[in-house]
Amino acid sequence: FPSHDIHLTLRYQGETVATASGYRDKDLNVITSRRSSLVSTELNIFANNPIFGVGPGGGYAEREKYEGVRIASHTEPTRLIAEQGGFGLALALIFLLYPLARIRLMKLPVSKYYSIAFFGIAVFTSLHSAMRTTITPLFWGLGCANILPNGHPRLPR
Fold first, then answer.
1. How far apart are CA 138 and CA 69, in angstroms?
2. What is the pLDDT of residues 53-69, one digit of tens each?
3. What letter would DSSP give residue 155?
């Protein structure tokens, strides 16, 4: 393919214009768009500030100390843990465990399927820097909704 045109399927395989043309080796940082390095950095920030973290928005300055460049977080769970410390860890666990408990208590399989799909989208978009603050809460909320088939009477709790 031309050096300026990278197909989306190749990008998901970790290919960039630089790796395709041989100017850069493909490694974990390239494949994950630098997320692996940032996750490691944010976990180190949490390890150094386990109780209160570095405060809201403090991750920028701390990541600059570790990475040498001022860069935004690319994953919401690790940003939350680094900036909010133990409280952020508790929130991240609630974010991940509440859906499992809710799905387990659902009676109708169709409701479970919708919730699993919505919660799955919420979790995966929280790992994407461009979508983590918009789509994640929307789909997490949809996953919490009681979705019943058309014409089905409401089930007692």
1. 31
2. 999 989 888 988 988 88
3. P
Query: Tokens 């150094």 identify what position?
Result: 48
pTM for the model stands at 0.73
What lies within 8 Å, CB to CB, of 70 at 6+ separation is 60, 61, 63, 64
Length of the chain: 157
List the structure tokens of 66.
């570790």
Ramachandran class of 89: left when φ > 0, alpha when ψ lies in -120 to 50, beta otherwise? alpha
DSSP string across 112-144: HHHHHHHHHHHHHHTTSTTTTTTHHHHHHHHHH
Radius of gyration of the chain (CA): 20
DSSP-based three-state secondary structure for 56: coil
Q: 94: number of CA atoms within 13 Å, CB side?
A: 8
- With beta carbons less than 8 A apart as the criterion, state whether 135 and 126 touch: no
Return the structure tokens found at 81.
């843990």
